[in-house]
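Quick sanity check, Transposase:
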Amino acid sequence: MKLIDFTQVENIFIVCGKTDMRRQIDGLAATITEEYDMDVYNDALFLFCGGHKDRFKALYWEGDGFLLLYKRLENGKLNWPLNQNEVQKLSAQQLRWLLEGLSINQKVSIKPAVKGSIA
């Protein structure tokens, strides 16, 4: 077993809206493959949240098995997107914002400059 730096994972996806948090590995993997037609084995971290926004689950395929993480926050809540039946791809920065209780779409963040464009 290896420990993963999730900021280095190629694909980070958030399953928006509410997920039944009683689901475990097989149920969450089935949600990804059947409801969203996505590949759970493709270097991807999938994030799920239920009705309580103080806890979430993360599902990741490590190459030899699934890793299921569950976290419950003691103070504060996640700013989880409510668009039911939608999956969004996140950057590592958006994942950090989410886990800090911020919106994944910060309105005042400084965006990287596009190469060759000068204002």
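Posting the structure with no commentary besides this: Residues 10-99 form one domain.
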